[in-house]
């Protein structure tokens, strides 16, 4: 479902005033910018369901109150946003208010989009109106029963948690004196809406912090979405990006792979539809910005590679819980030293995904497999098969415990009950999805 | 009718290279593949992918002979019968073709391989060529092909060690190898214990061992197209398998990920091409007609350019079915389509080392090993020997799987059951190693391909007929080279040696695997009377048809064919892009 993301280069030039005056007649250039903002905002992720035309909506969001579906945002006048004026459009995106005055479900990340500049909104509007094909296709009806279907509580939610656009922009654009960091902040906090997944949420599902200025909860890791746990993007040494450098982050956002790991779950879509289309300059700005976010968890001891695991495995000492399962199923690609092979098979040693509190991602990758899709700059799709029919819950628990502990990872063990419980949120088998790219 | 600028028939190496090059040139390309889609995500899903029964034994990635096959006979006076069970050679089927199931032995050529007729005449005179042998030159030189060998290696992620680069000795590579313009993209694969033992013994015997060039990645690699390979871990599941580590080069791993991103490219699987359609003059192809094998619907496409890049004999078959060029007639010695059909000679000998030496035969990689070229091509004096051709000799430990090991235990004459068999099996698996002589096979006037007069495939078209047997020249060559293995085995400290070679009077036997390195049948050359294709692999008769593959080899060389096929594919593509597209028509005017 939801993702996070980022955005805009031409725009940077505009704000810096280095671009020639924008000619109203040059609609194509504006549309091109709008397409870039749409990619940066990853509109596709939520508004294009598999098998449906682009931007015609229909993706289901399963929430405690019922199921809601993303809407058709093509310029169709009846089923889409064809009747929206630019003001209507801006209000919906930045404030979550529909033309009829009712409030959007905050699955739409309008608290982040509140930061979008007027120019970006203008470009986005031009793109959606002039370059997206109108699709006269209704999104499925939401399945939320009365009284929860009433929208007025959403309005209360919005009053409580959604920032006013001007204030939001003001905060985001004035946190840093360095223009690159400001650019990064805008991309991450605004169109990228990274916090929608990577920030923890409060009791009313509001993000705990929408900007770097909001304290260390912001981007400190979110709850599992579709079974995948968004890790912290802050500087924790073990569970965050503390050991990633700027180039690691840029490469990850461009290709979904680097020496530290590979994307999975919703992040792969976020890269595919979004960040890979961003300019190098914008990706570096985002990376620089992320690198200044201080750790939320300040008590983590630095991860140090421990050679003991590899040396035991080399001696065929499989006495540690899960070691034999690891050798039989995992070591062919991830190696006995846990280092994998850069950008092809991700390392398990020191990988933040392994050391997080919630083991759901690990268990789910083993249960369902995963494919890193090909990107423009890295066309190879790399697939890990699922081990659903090969390993019992106990064996999955054992091997996850092993890799969480090995090579200095030292993360806590998990039980067979944990694995069994995670079956409830287990994603469908990776290869049962026909959209899995071939390679 | 749907139109494409170019139609490419067959989704193997040759087809994928041509499709990539032609889309780069801005053409819309439709690639037709008879078999199904194949992806590492599915075929390579570990650990099912290393199931020997599913893979090499039940021949998962190979042609379904129940739909189409060929008929085989040894001599012209026999009646050919259909090849109903895969054994002697294993054509691939599905996206990736033979490029998915191959081992990864990625050689260039010896310069004299390309001009063997000229080289033999220069050294020994024309009379040295036996009566009935159609010895021919390719019409292209190593110097001309070198940039394309280089290009292909950088796409394949080939591991190896050079001997000379731009004339300077740079490493302990093959002293007989032709000069290179740049190094291999990856360092050589490590020697297995058996390869190391062979290397030492060869040096001791005065030969010149070198690491075989392997399209198995010795390191992680990102190729020219941005496609990624994982490093080989010597699991041994190469030939007959889709490599789960993405470390064996294949069209699927090395080219198609990039090609599939191109909106100008369309791949249609399960599309069995029935014929290339020609205009009324029979000098211009108008398109292609294929059968959707899942729906049995016939579909015609139009195209300006048609590339035949199916497996060697399928290319020849399609030319005959489409009436491109004149079928070869061995009696009148006229026509070119089906002429110079060739194979390779291969014989696998076995050497047993003392019980203290463990050869760990489960370890291996399809392209890795140590070879000597002292008896390949024109590297030795044929004068007193009276035959043409040669063989590299190598230890190419490709990973001995359990079922194959059980089937091959003990060597010739050993017990096939009971406790003696079991002892032999264990000893052989633990302490033996294989040494192959993988050699040339010359072309002969009465060895050829044509359409079978009787048998038809599931679609009602005549099967291709193969007339092939071993000939005196090649049998003597093979025996000579195999005889050179004995002293090497001795230097290795062999406790037992079982030498295997071809024998006079033993015809080609389709029941045992030999090699899938079939060649010729639509060869390239400079004379349209003796070649089907010009030096750019363009049909002499239908100039908008190019036929890419080992079908172009006028004779079987000592090396594995894929490297030469890839270089010829890039060579042809280069001339299509730089010359043909600007002014379509024959690239060689007579």
TrEMBL record, chain A:
Free-text remark on how the cofactor is bound: Binds 3 heme c groups covalently per subunit.
Keyword Electron transport: yes
Keyword tags: Cell membrane, Electron transport, Heme, Iron, Membrane, Metal-binding, Repeat, Respiratory chain, Signal, Transport
Binding site for heme c 1: 43, 46-47
Positions of heme c 3 binding: 330, 333-334
MF terms (GO), sorted A to Z: electron transfer activity; heme binding; iron ion binding; oxidoreductase activity, acting on CH-OH group of donors
Protein name: Cytochrome c
TrEMBL record, chain B:
Keyword Transmembrane helix included in the entry's annotation: no
Residue stretches making up the Glucose-methanol-choline oxidoreductase C-terminal domain: 450-569
Residues in Glucose-methanol-choline oxidoreductase N-terminal domain copies: 142-343
Keywords: FAD, Flavoprotein, Oxidoreductase
Gene Ontology MF: a single term: oxidoreductase activity, acting on CH-OH group of donors
Entry superkingdom: Bacteria
Family as reported in the entry's similarity comment: Belongs to the GMC oxidoreductase family.
PANTHER family reported for this sequence: LONG-CHAIN-ALCOHOL OXIDASE
Official protein name in the record: Gluconate dehydrogenase
């Amino acid at each position: 479902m939801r993702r996070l993301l980022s955005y805009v280069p031409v725009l940077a030039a505009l704000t810096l005033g280095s671009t020639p005056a924008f000619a109203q007649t040059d609609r194509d250039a504006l549309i091109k910018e709008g397409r870039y903002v749409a990619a940066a905002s990853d509109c596709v992720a939520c508004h294009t369901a598999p098998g449906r035309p682009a931007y015609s909506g229909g993706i289901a969001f399963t929430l405690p109150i019922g199921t809601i579906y993303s809407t058709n945002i093509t310029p169709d006048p009846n089923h889409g946003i064809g009747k929206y004026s630019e003001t209507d459009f801006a209000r919906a995106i930045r404030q979550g208010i529909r033309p009829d005055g009712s409030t959007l479900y905050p699955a739409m990340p309008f608290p982040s989009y509140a930061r979008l500049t007027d120019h970006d909104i203008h470009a986005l509007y031009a793109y959606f109106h002039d370059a997206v094909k109108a699709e006269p296709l209704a999104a499925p009806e939401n399945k939320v029963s009365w009284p929860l279907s009433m929208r007025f509580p959403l309005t209360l939610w919005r009053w409580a948690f959604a920032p006013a656009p001007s204030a939001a922009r003001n905060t985001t654009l004035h946190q840093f004196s360095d223009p690159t960091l400001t650019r990064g902040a805008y991309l991450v906090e605004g169109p990228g809406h990274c916090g929608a997944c990577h920030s923890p949420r409060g009791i009313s599902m509001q993000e705990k912090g929408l900007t770097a200025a909001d304290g260390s909860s912001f981007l400190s890791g979110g709850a599992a979405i579709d079974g995948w746990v968004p890790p912290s993007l802050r500087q924790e040494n073990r569970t965050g990006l503390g050991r990633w450098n700027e180039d690691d982050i840029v490469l990850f956002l461009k290709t979904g792979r680097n020496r530290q790991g590979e994307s999975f779950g919703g992040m792969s879509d976020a890269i595919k539809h979004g960040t890979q289309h961003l300019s190098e300059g914008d990706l570096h700005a985002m990376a620089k910005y992320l690198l200044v976010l201080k750790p939320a968890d300040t008590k983590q001891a630095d991860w140090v590679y421990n050679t003991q695991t590899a040396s035991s495995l080399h001696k065929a000492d499989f006495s540690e819980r899960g070691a034999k399962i690891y050798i039989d199923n995992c070591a062919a690609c991830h190696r006995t030293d846990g280092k994998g092979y850069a950008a092809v098979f991700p390392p398990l040693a020191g990988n933040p995904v392994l050391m997080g509190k919630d083991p759901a991602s690990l268990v789910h990758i083993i249960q369902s497999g995963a494919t890193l899709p090909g990107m423009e700059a890295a066309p190879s799709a790399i697939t890990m098969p699922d081990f659903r029919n090969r390993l019992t819950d106990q064996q999955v628990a054992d091997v996850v415990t092993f890799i969480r502990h090995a090579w200095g990872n030292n993360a806590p063990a998990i039980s067979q009950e944990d694995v069994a419980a995670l079956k409830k949120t287990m994603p469908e088998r990776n290869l049962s999805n026909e959209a899995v790219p071939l390679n | 009718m749907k139109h494409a600028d170019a139609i490419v028939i067959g989704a193997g190496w040759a087809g994928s290279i041509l499709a990539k090059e032609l889309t780069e040139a801005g053409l819309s390309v439709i690639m037709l593949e008879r078999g199904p889609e194949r992806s590492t995500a599915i075929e390579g899903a570990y650990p099912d992918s290393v199931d020997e029964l599913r893979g090499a034994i039940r021949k998962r990635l190979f042609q379904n002979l129940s739909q189409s096959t060929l008929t085989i006979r040894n001599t012209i006076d026999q009646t050919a019968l259909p090849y109903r069970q895969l054994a002697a050679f294993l054509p691939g089927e599905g996206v990736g073709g033979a490029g998915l199931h191959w081992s990864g032995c990625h050689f260039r050529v010896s310069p004299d391989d390309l001009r063997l007729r000229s080289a033999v005449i220069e050294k020994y005179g024309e009379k040295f060529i036996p009566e009935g042998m159609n010895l021919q030159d390719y019409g292209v030189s190593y110097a001309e092909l070198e940039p394309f060998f280089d290009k292909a290696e950088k796409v394949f992620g080939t591991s190896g060690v050079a001997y000379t680069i731009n004339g300077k000795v740079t490493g302990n590579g093959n002293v007989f190898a032709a000069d290179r313009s740049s190094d291999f993209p990856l360092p050589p694969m490590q020697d297995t214990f058996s390869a190391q033992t062979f290397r030492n013994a060869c040096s001791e015997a005065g030969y010149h061992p070198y690491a075989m060039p392997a399209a198995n990645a010795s390191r992680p690699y990102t190729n020219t197209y941005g496609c990624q390979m994982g490093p080989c871990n010597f699991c041994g599941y190469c030939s007959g398998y889709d490599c789960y580590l993405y470390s064996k080069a294949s069209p699927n791993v090395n080219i198609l990920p990039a090609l599939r991103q191109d909106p100008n490219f369309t791949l249609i699987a399960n599309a069995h091409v029935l014929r290339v359609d020609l205009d009324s003059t029979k000098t211009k192809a108008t398109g292609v007609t294929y059968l959707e094998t899942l729906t049995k619907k016939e579909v015609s496409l139009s195209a300006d350019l048609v590339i035949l890049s199916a497996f060697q004999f399928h290319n020849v078959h399609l030319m005959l079915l489409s009436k491109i060029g004149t079928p070869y007639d061995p009696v009148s010695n006229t026509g070119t389509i089906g002429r110079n059909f060739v194979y390779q000679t291969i014989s696998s000998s076995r050497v047993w080392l003392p019980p203290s030496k463990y050869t760990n035969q489960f370890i291996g990689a399809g392209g890795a090993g140590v070879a000597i070229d002292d008896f390949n091509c024109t590297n030795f004096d044929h004068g007193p020997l009276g035959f043409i051709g040669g063989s590299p000799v190598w230890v190419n430990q490709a990973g001995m799987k359990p079922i194959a090991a059980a089937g091959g235990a003990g060597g010739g004459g050993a017990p096939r059951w009971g406790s003696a068999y079991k002892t032999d099996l264990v000893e052989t698996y633990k302490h033996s190693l294989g040494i192959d002589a993988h050699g040339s096979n010359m072309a002969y006037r009465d060895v050829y391909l044509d359409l079978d007069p009787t048998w038809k495939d599931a679609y009602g078209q005549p099967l291709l007929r193969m007339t092939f047997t071993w000939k005196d020249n090649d049998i003597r060559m093979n025996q000579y080279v195999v005889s050179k293995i004995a002293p090497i085995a001795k230097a290795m400290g062999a406790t037992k040696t079982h030498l295997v070679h071809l024998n006079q009077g033993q015809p080609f036997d389709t029941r045992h695997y030999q090699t899938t390195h079939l060649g010729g049948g639509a060869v390239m050359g400079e004379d349209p009377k003796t070649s089907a294709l010009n030096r750019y692999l363009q049909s002499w008769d239908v100039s908008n048809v190019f036929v890419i593959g080992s079908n172009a080899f006028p004779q079987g060389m000592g090396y594995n064919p894929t490297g030469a096929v890839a270089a010829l594919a890039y060579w042809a593509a280069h001339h299509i892009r730089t010359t043909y597209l600007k002014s379509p028509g024959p690239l060689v005017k007579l």
